[in-house]
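Quick illustration, no need to memorize.
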Amino acid sequence: MTPAGRYYHISPRFWQDPRVRAWSEDARTLALYLRTSPHGNMVGLYYCPLPYMTADLQWDEARLLAALEELVGAGYARYDYESQVMLVSDALVDDPPQNPNQVKGAVAVVRQLPPTPLQKTLIEIADKACPALATALRNRFDTVSQLLRKGFETVSEASTNPSETVSNTEPDSRTRFPVPVPGTREEPEKPPPDLTTQEREILKALEDLPGHPFRFETDLEFVRRWLIRFPTLDLLDEIDRCYTWWTGPKAPRNTAKANWRSRIRNWLQKQEEIRKERGARERAQISGPGTGLAPGRAAQAGGSRPPGYYDRLIAARDGAGEKARPPGVSDER
């Protein structure tokens, strides 16, 4: 079951799938990488930190996260940022274990992973793709350290007193990752103390978006990237406008699985382009034909002209008369 020496089945229908054809080029590249990753395995559930992927693909993290969010929104992949575990939903369907020995190997691989709710998701996929594997996984997790208690049981079932919190992990000699102890709770996620007021307001707006799978650390990373990349835009206002457009009558009707991070990023890019085009048109109006100055001359003179100079210049261009013509500008060639 180790990646070395194995080959993986990928359906030739991949390129004909309408869902795949609608993805960006980066999303298609990442999808193929996830199916052929050197860190992967037969079942498609494997430990794969973001630095692994950026190194293999030779991408920066922003590019990787954008493509990954697109695949998550399409239901092709799921990623647990806390345990750094990837699940490729189609992997087990296209390449299920073929005999009892492979089933045993698959169970051994999954048991060595960090505890993650994606283990439960894998079993749900295996119920249809490989019932023998689903049964084996359930039996294993019911008898060995209850690895899936975190995914199968709710917080109220795990602890009768919500105010009590204790350490929820203990070392396991069979794996280098901690194993949850049944009947315990995790400490709630706390925001870092260095959050700015602006970051808090934007994160609250993202958390309130209907259908958005809000994750504090992930969304904070996106917000800080947007603040750096789009410093001239009012992010709170643009997020509100983006939501209004996507929930209005002009929005596409077939994008139920699209994710808000990608929507907002694309919206901000478009608004930035519009702002730059508008600024270029305004500069062209000032330095265009009829002002008495060539565009290059007008740009060079801009820093040394007195207040109101260009207002008088535009008035002269529009035929306000000789009295409105600014000093030093004439019709002489």
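The chain has three domains: 12-180, 197-282, 288-324.
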